[in-house]
Amino acid sequence: PGCSVSQVPVAEGKSVQQTVEILTRKLELLGAEKQGTFCVDCETYHTAASTIGSQGQTGKLMYVMHNSEYPLSCFALFENGPCLIADANFDILMVKLKGFFQNAKANKIESRGTRYQYCDFLVKVGTVTMGPSARGISVEVEYCPCVIANDCWNLLMEFMQSFMGNHTPGIPSVFGAKHDSIYSPADTMVQYMELFNKIRKQQQVPVAGIR
User: Fold this and answer.
1) Which string of DSSP letters, residue by residue, matches 43-93?
2) In the chain, which segments carry CATH 3.30.310.180?
3) C-alpha to C-alpha distance for 203 and 68, rounded to whole angstroms
4) How many C-beta atoms surround the C-beta of residue 98 within 10 A?
């Protein structure tokens, strides 16, 4: 199914939580129904210093991600690189590989929130947290019947405008790369990885209005 993952800015004078409530209220007014909760998390691993060698190579970052929508899978993504879909035991393997990949624990980031169903759309509005604090808001919108992502972009965009207004995102880069091929869960995880990295970078600059 075609799916868009995007960030919604915190409303002026509001907190992250209040902005999430504004969005979910709009969805409920449209007639969307709550269907449980969701969580997407991401841990960063960097290449261990001992494996880099002396040629001044830079270490690679790898992101190990989970999505409650796919409880039996674990996703390993390299920046600008492939996405490996493994079973849930992959986490145990990463512990065994600690000589090669080291977990940057301070960088763990996740998005959690409520799932909503509206006709053929599944919407997940999440609070993105790093450590104890809320850092941003993610909105995932999936059009369930469609398997070719580009075929449903106009429909997705029209629906997103109904509750996201001028914060409706542009077409995700993974759509452009897919052309007419089938959309997969890995494409959603790539979008979450990009969103989380964007939020991480924003945190390096002091932002007014985020409490």
Assistant:
1) EEEEE-HHHH-SS-PPPPEEEEEEETTSTTEEEEEETTS-EEEEETTHHHH
2) 2-39+109-203
3) 26
4) 11
- Per-residue model confidence as pLDDT tens digits over 55-69: 555 667 899 999 999
User: For residues 2 and 29, which has the higher predicted lDDT (pLDDT)?
Assistant: 29
Least trusted range by pLDDT, from 21-25, 51-55, 155-159: 51-55
Closest to 141 in 3D by CA, of 116, 164, 119, 122 = 122
**Can you tell me the mean pLDDT for 173-186?**
79
| pLDDT for 210 beyond 50 | no
In the chain, pLDDT over 90 holds for what percent of residues?
Answer: 59
Residues 89-146: tens digit of each pLDDT? 898 898 888 888 888 888 899 999 999 999 999 999 999 999 889 999 999 999 988 7
> To which residue do tokens 């969805």 refer?
27
Count of residues in the chain? 211
Taking residue 118's Cβ as centre, other Cβ atoms within 10 Å add up to 17
Q: Output the CA–CA distances (angstroms, integers) from residue 50 to 62, 98, 105, 161, in the order listed.
A: 16, 11, 19, 49
Domain 2-39+109-203 adopts which CATH fold? TATA-Binding Protein (3.30.310)
Is the distance from CB of 183 to CB of 147 less than 8 angstroms?
yes
Return d(Cα 13, Cα 147) in angstroms, integer. Answer: 40
